[in-house]
Predict the structure.
Amino acid sequence: MNKIINNSEYDVIVLGGGVAGATTALCLGSAGVKTICLEAKVHPRFAIGESTVPSTTIMYQMLGRKYNIPELDGVCNYFHLKDLGITTYPKCQFWFGLNEEGKELDTNREFMFETMSPPQGPDSHMLREDLDAFLTNLFPKYGVDYVDNMSIKELRMGKEEDDPEITFEKTVDGVTKEISLKSKFVIDATGRSSYLSRKFGMIEKEPTLRNRTRTIYGHFKYDESFNLDTAMGGINNTFRFSRNAGTMHHCFDGGWIWVIPFENNTVSIGVILDIDQYPYPEDMSKDDEFWHHVKRFPTVYKHFENLTLSHPILRTGRMQVKVNSIVGPRYLVTPHAAGFVDALFSTGMLMTARFAFRAVPRIKDCLQRGNYQMENFQDMNELFMRELDFVDMMVSGTIASFWNYEIFKQYWRIWIESSVRQVVDAQAYSQPEAALYGSHDEDWFQTVKACNELALSTKKNREDPDQIASQIKDILDKKIAILCRFPGNFKLQNPSTTSVHVFTRTEYETSILTGKVQYLVGLTASAWYFIGKYWASRLLGTKYA
């Protein structure tokens, strides 16, 4: 795996061997594109981005089948991950609880969104250090060369007419070598460091995104006392699953906490904070700040009180990243290196899969024609920027609504509806390149934009929350399709536990068939009713009306 390639030429050089770089490199290699991946560190290494959503599972299945990589087919499914030896955890649901400072969490302020049922589900949590190492270990099988533990010394590129050339250093057995590689194309999968965008001045110094958050996160060890049902005094009978059976979100005014357990008794926890409400405290350590926020909420503290730290707590400034374009002269930038909004709703791997679907065939076409002009990829850039804007609206409005139960209950429906639209686009209509969350639909895009403006208007001005909630409800009631089961209710001023189930493909197709049957039965019954009424009027001599 620590292969040294001297003075070689490739079709594509992929910078970064994380999940985005590895996924893209595997698809390129399997498609017959001569590819090498360069990674600065050595796997296994610590990384976050450890949770999937139903659409991620579907997209990786489709990606694996399209490029004949069976390992990708099952890389997000819990049962397949266990078979592959990757540390995982079954994700049967997303749980949200709206906490108030100094108060136990009210069971009427809970929400659950279920993932897909077997065999397509459940979704999963995966320990990224295991997953990333597994993917890079597949490189030889799919014809991808790989160099890790290296550092780039020089990069000669920036013109469409010139082949990129990269010089890097690699130390083996105490001897440092300098190696130069040429390629036709480069893909930047370096994550938030966004190597190429920073080098060419394409990254925004102050990202023009609505969401403004920072995070404090780490990994912890848990024992049998780590149980949210216990911390809340028992199960909630409205839910079909335990609160522990998936990703848990402790939400509060100006922030939220992710809780992502794994079966090896490790749990990933991150505290996300709005930087305007919670500025970076120079006089407080990251560990102290983490526990300070945990202790503000009694139920959260009960949930976490027996955890022990297994990876040092890390703290960031503003997390958001945005580049001016994902397309440059002879290069592309993967989603996580091009734009990051927040960890909420776990969009990272989903956007990676969409990127691979779009990029690989376009790169192959450019190689075949010898045409590497940026215009060949402009449609990808436009789609990505629209998706980033949509995710930003979905996330920023959700976080802004955490302060008020009524507003959140309505705004949460946007994510549900968008997720269902995405599943339907990918499964029922087989459109893996369609924009994320149905954002290609201009009517839906503008609907979410209108709701987002209302939600953000309450961020500073906390007046009239009931009126804002009512306005959002009115907008969504006219637009949301009946594609989900909604056992919970979304009525105003009616606190209750809310649980939502998303359709699998079989359930979706069955619902369409059932709807058609019900329509035909109703139509037939109506016809017989009017026929009977007509003949009754004739026989009885009564005027038919």
Summary: DSSP finds 16 helices and 20 strands in the chain. Residues 505-540 form the longest helix (36 residues). The two ends are 83 Å apart (CA to CA).
